[in-house]
Amino acid sequence: SKENILNSIEKMYEESRNIARDDIDKIIDEDFSTRLFELLNSYSSDNQKVLLLGNNQENWESISTRVQSEIFYIIREVMINMKKHSQAKFASIQIEKKLENQLSIKYTDNGIGIENLQKNKTSGLLNMENRIAEIGGEINFDKNLKQGLIISIKIPIL
After folding, report:
1. How far apart are alpha carbons 91 and 76 in whole angstroms?
2. Which end of the chain is more exposed for a tag (fewer CB within 10 A), N or C?
3. What is the DSSP secondary structure assignment for residue 123, as one 8-state letter?
4. How many CA atoms lie within 13 A of 110 on its CB side?
């Protein structure tokens, strides 16, 4: 019946909210650099290698847990898209503190890239853009001149 379906949907929604809260609690409780390493390591396989550069705890010390959480979800979305769409054999994420007031994250892969980005924006890409905007950052998608995709993210450190 309609009521049973609505009740089931509500139950699934509550369970998914609890999972998201548990993820945030893990991010806050664990050393963020370790958590990020574990995330990226989970996307590496025999067919796809993921390299993480500049992921030291010093880079994360002045970043609020809220911004760390957003960065975690953004990078997770990048990795999901890499697995689903890129056909990349290699991907890297480089994290750098630029001066004292900016964090730079650069993703590069050797996959097929994104043709006609504006036309092919998925909900995942839009979600990344919204998350970046929420923390006052900016994100740019560029075609890698050799092959693949480059995503540049800049986040102010307040």
Report:
1. 13
2. N
3. H
4. 8
Residue by residue, DSSP assigns 8-76 as HHHHHHHHHHHHHHHHHHHHHHS-HHHHHHHHHHHT--SS-EEEEES--HHHHHTS-HHHHHHHHHHHH
Query: Residue 107: beta bridge partners?
Result: 93, 151
Decide: 88 and 110 in contact? Cβ < 8 Å.
yes
Nearest CA-CA partner of 94 in 84, 104, 85, 102: 104
Residue 68 CA, distance from chain mean position = 10
Q: State pLDDT tens for residues 107-152.
A: 999 998 877 655 556 677 888 899 999 999 999 988 887 889 999 9
pTM for this model (two decimals): 0.78
Q: Are 135 and 70 in contact (CB under 8 A)?
A: yes
Count Cβ atoms within 10 A of the Cβ of residue 124 and give its class: 0-12 exposed, 13-18 middle, 19 or more buried: middle
Q: Is 157 exposed, middle or buried (0-12, 13-18, 19+ CB in 10 A)?
A: middle
Task: Give yes or no for residue 31 having a pLDDT over 90.
Answer: no
Strand order in the sheet with 49-53: 49-53, 90-98, 102-109, 149-156, 138-143
